[in-house]
Write a structure and sequence with these properties.
This protein is an alpha+beta fold. It is built from 4 helices and 5 strands, in the order βββαβαβαα.
């Protein structure tokens, strides 16, 4: 079953490599016998993603991205292999969704005449207050 990123983009199963490994950390005897963690590998360059998304993914500064353009995700949060598999796939989808969103370009605007006048008035008002604080000279 393909991994659905959004209504227009989905990834076929053969592009994602899932390997079961032993989880790290505490867990008693169970951690030494059961391979419940999942190691997900996704080759960005060899994927069927549109070129613009490939470029954005490869431009990410992410420690999970290797020099060869392979995204490596390790999921070991849950005790069962199935939950870790679902978690790894969801994390991959989230990363890809993040690069599919294009931010709206900001159009620079200028402050209005009244806004400029208010700014100048507040500055002069503040200046007058500070002048009032000065010591009175006996001349």
């Amino acid at each position: 079953m393909p991994l659905i990123i959004n209504p227009r983009i989905s990834l076929p199963d053969h592009e994602i490599t899932l390997i079961a490994i032993r989880a790290q950390g505490a867990g008693g005897q169970n951690v030494n016998k059961v391979a419940s963690a999942i190691h997900l590998r996704f080759d960005i360059r060899g994927s069927s993603l549109p070129d613009i998304y490939k470029e954005r993914l490869l431009a990410m500064s992410d420690q999970r991205l290797t020099g060869d353009g392979i995204l490596v995700i390790k999921a070991q949060q849950y005790r069962t292999q199935e939950k870790n598999r679902t978690d790894a796939l969801e994390r991959l989808a989230r990363i890809i969704r993040r690069v599919t969103v294009t931010e709206k370009k900001r159009t620079p605007t200028r402050p209005s005449v009244t806004a400029r006048q208010k700014r100048v008035e507040s500055k002069t008002r503040r200046g007058r207050i500070k002048t009032m604080r000065k010591k009175v000279s006996d001349s």
